[in-house]
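In response to reviewer comment 3 from the previous cycle, which asked for concrete evidence that the modeling workflow produces usable outputs, we include below a single protein chain processed end to end. The sequence was submitted unchanged, and the resulting structure tokens are shown without manual editing.
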Amino acid sequence: MEHATSTGPLTIAEIMTPNVVTTTADQPVEHVARELRTTGFGALPVVDDAGMLIGIVSELDILSKRGRSAGEIMTSGVITVDDTMSADQVTALMGAHGIRRVPVVRDGRLIGIVSRSDLLRLYTLARWDCDICGDYERGFLAPDRCARCGGTSFHLVQEQRTANG
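The workflow returned the following structure tokens.
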């Protein structure tokens, strides 16, 4: 297992999925449904010709709304995040709104997407090591105090899993 050490916050840019599979507003709902089924995704962002995010079509939109095109059934006014936001901020936002994924935008243009599983993967690979005793705690934010020695100085270690684990 390799390690990368840092003292800065865990940002969404580190874990977002770039090169997102998208759809356009004019795509037939049947095509979007097939795309969701074959990719295993729960939703597809809807973009215009310039790559600007205009909505998102989820499995629930397809099942519960009537329309012939993605544009007719998509959810507009999508909650988005900036790639400089911290993982804990995005986690709180997703929890407050009960959403499973959030598009990442820069100047309105879609640059990635973050899902709950992306955040879970980051959680399992990030730990805060106490600078005094070496004990660690997992999480997106450094703890206030070390549970073992009471120390208040920590550094972030991001584990890099190898093919074997």
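The longest strand covers residues 109-115. We consider this sufficient to address the reviewer's concern, and the full set will be provided in the supplementary archive.
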